[in-house]
Amino acid sequence: MTIGRGEELHEKLSAGVKRILVADRKMTIKKATILIVDDREAIRRVLYRKLSGEGYQCQEASSADQALDKLRSNLTELVLLDIKMPGKSGVELLLEIRASYPDTAVIMATALTDTSIAIQCMKHGAYDYLIKPFNLDEVILSVGRALEKRRLELENRDYQQHLEQRVETQARKIRASLISAITALAYALEAKDDYTSGHSQRVAETSVTIAKELGMPLSSIEKIRLAGLVHDIGKIGVRECVLNKLVGLTDEEFYHIQRHCEVGEHILNPIVDDEEILNMVRHHHERYDGTGYPDGLSGEQIPLGARILAVPDAYDAMTSERPYRGAMSVETAYAEIERGKGTQFDPEVADAFLRIENRQPQSPRVIASRTRAVRLAGS
Ligand SMILES: [Fe+2]
Asked: Which domains does the chain have, with CATH numbers?
């Protein structure tokens, strides 16, 4: 019983909503502005009264020139256009309207003897034609159909025009989600180790600064930032006892740690649909002279992004406190970077890094590094 009343109420509400929607749609269409173009005043009057009575905003013109004046000064959704007029004919005016006001629908009005011309007009873009003497109910139906067709055409065109923009917006949203997911992964990795806390963030930020210094395009810079955030994600797959071993790594253990580059690429592969980012992660421990890992690439064989990551990665490691050693001073670390030009590091990248550091001696990273060293010393 209760369910029956509920269904009844639901049906009543649905019907009410449908009535409102239909009424709203009719209102929208009926607010349209219609220009009635005919040299005979009596015909204009009849059409004006009927269409105004249906809620349309009507205007009149007795010639093609007067019609063009009205079109210039008013936004007109539909023109009801007589074919035979003194001076410029309705057919000529139709062509001008199609060329200058393509969003305006046109319905031709003609005598029974001129229907072939009316059909020609439809080939030139008229929506419909009406035969005189008018059946006013047919006029209303034809006007309603033409306005509805025009509305759908405009909506479709608007959809097509904005499709590209929508795709771009969607891509931006997906990229933003991706960045969030990647950042969360990087934080998860560093959360378990106080000594590497913030490492990925610092490598990402400094790599971006170097990429800008080298004049790289924005799209590449963004990829370098992402790669910086996740370059060590493969360490998730390194046994903790090996990761935290102070000294004396066996060959097997050393190889196991080195594997983090390939493991990182493997972990990210299903999430990151971008070969460049994956390559930066894989190759961030390659050395410029070809003695690095995992593939022993050298020089420009190493992706530029990976050559960039390598410099702040090494610098941050050198200036960070470790359980088995203190942090290197920034000055000594600079000297190490200088010394590694052409062997460990791409000379151009190392120079860019050193230039940036020289320009900002009190960089936030240096301060953070020193603060961290003080904090760890006091704990
Ligand atoms: Fe690494």
From this structure: 31-161 (3.40.50.2300), 178-378 (1.10.3210.10)
